[in-house]
Amino acid sequence: xxxxxxxxxxxxxxxxxxxxxxxxxxxxxxxxxxxxxxxxxxxxxxxxxxxxxxxxxxxxxxxxxxxxxxxxxxxxxxxxxxxxxxxxxxxxxxxxxxxxxxxxxxxxxxxxxxxxxxxxxxxxxxxxxxxxxxxxxxxxxxxxxxxxxxxxxxxxxxxxxxxxxxxxxxxxxxxxxxxxxxxxxxxxxxxxxxxxxxxxxxxxxxxxxxxxxxxxxxxxxxxxxxxxxxxxxxxxxxxxxxxxxxxxxxxxxxxxxxxxxxxxxxxxxxxxxxxxxxxxxxxxxxxxxxxxxxxxxxxxx
Length: 301
Prior knowledge:
CATH superfamily of the largest domain: LD-carboxypeptidase A C-terminal domain-like
Number of helices: 10
CATH architecture of the largest domain: 3-Layer(bba) Sandwich
Shape: globular
Number of domains: 2
Number of strands: 13
Strand order of the largest sheet: 6-13-12-7-8-9-10
CATH class of the largest domain: Alpha Beta
Strand content: 15-25%
Helix content: 25-40%
Largest sheet: 7 strands, mixed
């Protein structure tokens, strides 16, 4: 596994928009916050471009991302915001220069597509808040602190409250995963996730409960849940059922039913995903897990 070089104060971080247009005020505020921490910040010219729901058309977003991947003066690339669109131009990217001079790629949500590609390239990346969220969270939030700690090679353990639904146990392994919808969408493609003997992180937002159920069963049918070391379910928001009929099962109940035949530990309500708490994790690196009903500890290994 390739670990990109860690950053130091004075390193250069590039901000890219591979999906939706970024809010200009949030970009300015987030840039100021990051610069106050001693980093150089450069922004792609398409951050405020608008083409339908995208930050420019596919060719513009591709060109801007490719330029940062190829630029050896850039030490990390951070997604400005999520939405949809990264997967539309992912196949056109040339990763050869990036692999010669790897750098940290940072983001979540739609950026799961990039994380999935990096799993196959065997390069570590950071699942954490998107750049413009700095303007909302501030630099003192755990979301921001944890992300900068990974970049500066100061990673540490996280301890967070457990759940009565947790399936207790300990595990260690390479961490993989991200957005459940996108992981499901890439089944049967070259980006399909390898979960064998991995710790799998799943999170999503604003989905109907029956959508969660369908995606979990699809992952099981594809064999992605069979050989895990552990399963982490991040906080996931739920959309009201369209016909106002209660689906009948919670996310916890669905996960435990789908994984009933497997023996690995499972934790719920982990602070990773589309909620106020979105701590940073280094995907494609090793972690250890201690899962109990009262608390969960996840540590770099």
